Amino acid sequence: MTTTHHTTVELAKLARVLDRDPSDLQFLATLPPAALREFRDQITDLTARREARRMQRVGAAAKLVPAPIAAKITEAAFGPVLAAAIAGSVDPARAVAIASALSPTFLADATLTLDPRRAVELIAQVPGPMAAAVASELITRGDYLTMGNLAGSVPDSVLRAALPHASDLDILEVGYYLEETSAADRLLTVVTDRVPGVIRATHDAGEWPKAITLLALLGPTERSRLANVVAAQEDEVIDGLLTAVEELDAWDTLLPVAAGMAPTALQRLAQRPTMQNPTLLTKIANLALTQNLWLSLLPLATHLSPTQLHTVAARVATEPDASLTTLIEQAHTENHWPTLLPVALALDAPDRKRLASLPVMHRPDFLTAAIEATATHNLWPEALPLLNDLPTTTHDTLATTINTLTDNEFRAAVQAAPAADCTTTLIQILLSQDFSARSRSLTIINESDNLDTLVRTITTRDPAIWQGLSDIRTEIPEQLRNLLTAHATRCGQPELADNLTAS
To answer: What is the pTM of this model?
Structure first.
């Protein structure tokens, strides 16, 4: 979507250079914006080279008369177009002196064809009051194209002097026509205190398409900051943005913003009615998976409801094993395990098992990173069910990783195990620990507030697990051993129950 709007802007700028109506150039609308700009620059450069000698002679002559007289000659004989062409050939200080004797109306006319690339030094020396007067004239005319052309070249001081003359909506229009895309960040920084007003004015005027185009120009930091401000507005403003994004099919612009948004802002975004639509969520997930925006989707996913997550996970599940492996590797590289785990858990049981069976999920560094992220963010309820789907060949690695957890972190895992139906797997992993680590684990389990519930959720009838517990019976604290003995009997393992109590 934003490419289409950038093309519209570039066609308007090219039409200005060619002195044609933009509608005459619609046959070029299929070209990318970068190609149109390159073509425009080539025309401007060709014209400048052709007139270079004449402009240099005129510029040299301007040095011979006092600035006020040169200004009169410029206004009466040259006109604004020729004045703009000469500007780059005159000493900047001299040009400013001449310009100071010209009317804001004439200067505004001259800026229509001024090439900022050839007047960098001149623009840098323009006094704030002069810039403000010209900006006021251009804004009064609604000539945002020229303002955008110049805004990327003038110093911050000039912008600060000029922008008070602009309304909140004017600022949006100027941003839409910025000549240098890198200037978008600078413009937003200069008008930081006015951003909420710009957003409100954008909504009231129904100009979200232009705001979304400007959003695409911003760097990651400023883009996310702007999105956070939007998310702090009234519900109707957020809904207006989301509606516009859907109508314009601009999710490829909005989704990358999520990667840097604040959690509270993401939560508000996820809770809006538009985001409850399963068809839309599938569309967003599909975009993320096909347009290399997977890492932009994950931060948003953590704030989705179980129903929303299930929709996203269902689309993820359609990916082949090779693609799933790549998605996991990308998440691992960017330390996105805290955001990946909720999506993985939202998979249907067969798909979750398929995910857990992927070789990439058995790599020690991946398992370690996943457990560490789970402990750091207390994601045990989300992560523990996945342990059930991992093969027993991973238990040694998991046992080693659990050794590195603090007492409180492991205690949190123990507390979450019953509800996650993961007690049996946790016991299996515990049996893989060395003596010292296992002793600590058993002590923490024995001191657990939900010890009786924990023991009762050991659902396996596998004799190997009961035998493993029997083999370490002397290490098991008495309270825990007694509860295990009673539960072994309930599970139909009377002999092993007797073994647990043997000295």
So the answer is: 0.76
